[in-house]
Design a protein that fits this description.
By secondary structure, the chain is mainly alpha-helical. It is about 55% helix and about 5% strand. The strands form two sheets. Strands 1-2 form a two-stranded antiparallel sheet. The chain has a two-stranded antiparallel sheet with strand order 3-4. Helix 2 crosses helix 3, helix 2 packs antiparallel against helix 4 and helix 7 packs across helix 9.
Length: about 220
């Protein structure tokens, strides 16, 4: 009996130690993730936050966005295929693993499906523009089901950001503004700024899986 008691106490001690180690490890993982997104939350973790470059616009909502698209975007900023001094500096500071982890983190945040039964119809003008641009062929049903994860969900995204993003594909020969994407450039160059703004306004009105999840700037 005494021997059984000693064994039971030893096992309890062992499991207790394991639980303690797990408890010690859990915050370390969380802290590591917090450190990786620390540069992101100052803009993307504040509802309504506005950037002033290349013009004043709300920063994009990235919580609930496709991880593959976020990763592709960060890589494009690092390579200079997307020109934005602040985003390039941040992207260059990240390792490939950082980009993978950050992208997965934001995809998992606010991962709620868009409401499927309250989709406003576009005006005849906007419908014609969207058809001309073949937007649904890449961005999918309700512009929230891209045919590939490397394409963004654009339904419900801020209209002013969408307008700025679309116009950036029209820019050529600028060292600090512009995006290099042959497919998007070919589509966007068909439209005037007013037409891009009209499409962006409609897209922003759609039910969305995208969110801004408030994050404390102080850890």
């Amino acid at each position: 009996m005494k021997k059984l008691l000693q064994i039971s106490l030893a096992l309890a001690s062992l499991f207790g130690a394991a639980s303690f180690v797990q408890a010690k490890e859990a915050p370390t993982v969380a802290s590591a993730m917090q450190a990786k997104v620390a540069m992101c939350i100052g803009c993307h973790g504040i509802p309504g936050y506005q950037a002033s470059f290349p013009e004043v616009h709300k920063v994009p909502m990235i919580s609930g966005q496709n991880a593959k698209y976020i990763a592709a975007s960060l890589t494009a900023y690092a390579k200079g295929e997307r020109k934005h001094p602040t985003m390039r500096g941040i992207a260059l500071s990240l390792t490939e693993q950082d980009i993978t982890d950050i992208s997965a983190f934001y995809e998992a945040q606010a991962a709620v499906p868009a409401v499927a039964d309250a989709v406003p119809a576009p005006s005849a003008q906007v419908a014609e523009l969207l058809t001309k641009g073949a937007c649904v062929s890449c961005h999918g049903a309700n512009f929230s089901k891209p045919i590939d994860g490397s394409y963004p969900k654009i339904a419900g995204q801020h209209a002013d950001y969408l307008t700025v993003a679309l116009k950036s594909y029209q820019v050529e020969g600028n060292a600090v503004v512009g995006r290099s994407n042959a497919i998007m450039a070919a589509q966007v160059k068909q439209f005037s700024s007013a037409e891009l703004k009209a499409m962006a306004k409609y897209l922003a009105s759609l039910p969305s899986e995208l969110r801004t999840v408030p994050q404390s700037k102080f850890r």
